[in-house]
Amino acid sequence: MFLPGRPVMPGGAGSAEFASMRAAGASPLARRLLALDGVRSAFFGADFVTVTKDPGVAWPVLRPEVFEVVADFFASGEPVLTPTADGEGGGGGGGGAGPADTAILDTDSEVVAMIKELIETRVKPAVAEDGGNIVFCGFDEATGVVALELQGACSTCSSSSVTLKHGVENMLRHYVPEVKGVEEVKGEATEAVERESDKALSAMEKKLADAGILRS
């Protein structure tokens, strides 16, 4: 997690995730980070930046490059997000999500409103401390399952399933009896990292098999 010492998102609120150059069209900073060899995705929180790396890249090598890009960008005074073709700034389709995902609508049931309130006031601040975000994707009233997407550092953390099940799920079930469980919705960045991890694992298994070390 990189802390530039000033607000990252406009107004110091919300978040945005970028998993491709196309998605990063509205963010000069995201484009520069994604241009670094080994950076898989970039995530911006209210006052922090996190990046997800390719499995085969070592952090000690990549971290100084990311730090330099972040430091130089904020020293330049450029805006993190710029207006898109339709005149609006935003995440460029890369999974950006601010307070909008937990904004309580007139059409929301009392249960959904309570779930959104808990996620906004209790869950998001906690995961932001670790460089991540959790986005509310929906609630199935028939099954009682809350759909959530993990972003930033949380999306590739080995303990993310524990966070969802023993942290978020237990808290929601305690305050909202209608909630029976939570399930993770995979975002574009998470799926991309998992695909690369599978490729790296398959390549390693092939090498071991060719060397006679791994046998099926």
Automatic annotation (TrEMBL):
Q: Name one GO biological process term.
A: iron-sulfur cluster assembly
Q: Which GO terms describe its cellular component?
A: mitochondrion
Q: Which organism is it from?
A: Porphyra umbilicalis
By what name is this protein known?
A: Scaffold protein Nfu/NifU N-terminal domain-containing protein
Q: Which domain of life is it from?
A: Eukaryota
Cited Pfam families: Nfu_N, NifU
| Residue ranges of the region described as Disordered | 81-100
Q: What are the recorded GO MF terms, alphabetically?
A: iron ion binding; iron-sulfur cluster binding
Gly residues compositional bias: what residue ranges? 87-98
**InterPro entries, sorted:** FSCA_dom_sf (IPR034904), Nfu/NifU_N (IPR014824), Nfu/NifU_N_sf (IPR036498), NFU1-like (IPR035433), NIF_FeS_clus_asmbl_NifU_C (IPR001075)
Task: Please report the stretch or stretches of sequence annotated as the Scaffold protein Nfu/NifU N-terminal domain.
Answer: 1-77
Q: Which family does it belong to?
A: Belongs to the NifU family.
